[in-house]
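Recall the central idea of this unit: under ordinary conditions, the amino acid sequence of a chain determines the structure it adopts. In this exercise we apply that idea directly, starting from the sequence alone.
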Amino acid sequence: MDFYYHPCSAPCRSVMMTAKALGVELNLKLMKVMDGEQLKPEFVKLNPQHTIPTLVDNGFSIWESRAILVYLVEKYGQDDSLYPKDPEKKAVVNQRLYFDMGTLFHSFVQAIYPQIRSNAPADPEAMKKVDSAFDHLNTFLEGQDYVAGDCLTVADIALLASVSTFEVVDFDIGQYSNVSRWYENAKEVTPGWEENWEGVQLIKKFVDESRQKE
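Accordingly, the structure predicted from this sequence is:
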């Protein structure tokens, strides 16, 4: 399987962790998005939206990380633990995945990206949405070790990639006790955490170097 990615992308890293959990080998194809490689005709042919991550499995092309996570588990999972078949359990996993996409990671894009790209100060209104997202996640995790049931699922993996990326601006995850507890456990039990953290550190290095130039 060809996997078009960049290690700084949380959605890309969530796919890499899921693949590792499944024992699936990915043929990693680094995309230099800052150079516009995603706009090359051969890539646009694979993905008209020219976004990463993009997975090509035996000629089948799929993008949007959370769709890729589900595809990988449903096709290559030895069981349904990462993405349950039970309708109610699956619905909870789906809800958490959509929460990650539309609320938590979206708040990162709105509040943190500007700080990374232009070293701009945090926008107070945008940061309120970050706090709100973490408040909701903290509620989801009340009395639970995992975000969608009693074992690791793709929802944990997607959210782990997103939550860890907030650390590039030293966001205080510790102020959310349930999230902090879940985060420490997720680091231990999620295959591929080390590679995920390497990607976070790449962004952190960029941020630190930008600040030093001021």
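The chain is about 60% helix and 5% strand.
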